[in-house]
Design goal:
The complex is a heterodimer.
Chain A (H helix, E strand, L loop, with lengths): L1 H9 L5 H10 L9 H36 L5 H6 L5 E2 H4 L34 E4 L6 H9 L3 E5 L6 H11 L5 E5 L7 E5 L2 E5 L5 H10 L32
Helix pairs in contact in A: 2-3
Chain B lengths: L1 H12 L5 H29 L10 H26 L3 H28 L34 H9 L2 H29 L3 H29 L4
Classes of the chains: A alpha/beta, B mainly alpha.
Amino acid sequence: MTTKTNKGDRRNQPPIAAQRNKSKGGRKGRKPGAPVKVSQGRNWGPIMMFVAVGVIAAGIIGYAFWAQRDTGSLEWSDRAAAIEGIVDYRAENPEMLTNGHVNGQPLQYEVLPPVGGDHNGAWQNCQGNVYDAPIANEHAVHSLEHGAVWVTYNPDTLPADQVSELTSLVEGTDMMLLSPFPELDAPISLQAWGYQLKVDSASDPRINEFVRTLRLNASMEPGATCSGGITATGTVPQDVGDQLGG
Amino acid sequence: MSVAATEAPPAGAAGPAPPRRRFGMGVLATAVAAGLLVGFALAMVTIRPAAAPGEESAEAGFARDMIEHHSQAVTMGVEAFQRGATAQVRQLGYDIALTQQSQIGMMRQWLREWQVSPNTEPGEQMAWMREALDPALIRDGRMPGLATPEQMTALAEAAGTALDRLFMELMIYHHLGGIHMIDGVLERTDDPAVTWLAELMRDGQQRELTVMRDLLAGLDSPGP
């Protein structure tokens, strides 16, 4: 700033019309017509310099904010709360989210598809498994406890091409499973332990947001696996995974 | 950073304009850039979490001891997974072995991040909560809940229902000791990562205690 002021002071002030161009251009004795273009050309140097510094500064500051915002996996619950339409049963109804193992019998769930509660001792395999028929809630809830995201759809209302979209989202991705859920009151519903999001279309961007935020983060048993569980379909719980000789 | 700062002025001076004033601009721009870089560096340092747990901290002691504690559970779990008489016990062994092995990885990573030793100094095992140790959970001066070498041999040699029973008896005691250690670290830490894992570990082991007690009761009840 000081530099600028000095420049202005150093020079005798020309008539107002010419002042702007002259002072920037910094050459004396030019005719009023021509200097305009010349001095404009000269002025790009400092302008570019400040623009460059400004861009770099914005980049650095922007990066710092981005880096700070994007770390901190411990704040995943805040990110979950920001997803439009998500239901947080951990806050709304924590009593529902019991975690006992109950074998040998079907269980009733308050919310369907269930997002937590007592479950069968065996979990449904959730290594990106795509089930083409309904599976037992009692196993799927156990998978949620291990940190999986369970994607369900209504086979009567979701078009086949959207089922394919969901399939490519889930297939082969550990800690994910997909199954049809007849009577579902929305075309698609996503579940993590204590969380649910219902959407109408497989292209809804909130699906990815839900998966990115809650897969693994919502685990109640950090380190637990999606292997070694039930791989069969059918809604009657069967207590022990086939791999383990049930 | 200093490289970027010193390189800025030549780049400015190389422009097509008269040298004097441009040099002033160059100096100014360099100063601005340097200021930003210093500010950025300071921000990076302050954004970083506060002091990590140190060599002598309860957190580091817990991590080192719990890694070893978990590793015995993994051995027991694999025995049960491979040779358990019932599918439920095989499944339980599978779950415990893989989950605890994965948690060992998480705790090893803590020690790396904190830049503390992964190895316990001689005589320092459980020192981080020594004054609070429950003697009822200690066998032969080992960590709370740990099985003795003789018990581990007995497990390796057991078969059938005897294996299932011994596995669950040893694992119940093991979990009780583990929960004692977890309670110990939770009383001594406010580290968010440690609190997060320790609380979920405790919940998980308490759940497994219920499962094992039920299964044991089933073995003892009328029937085969």
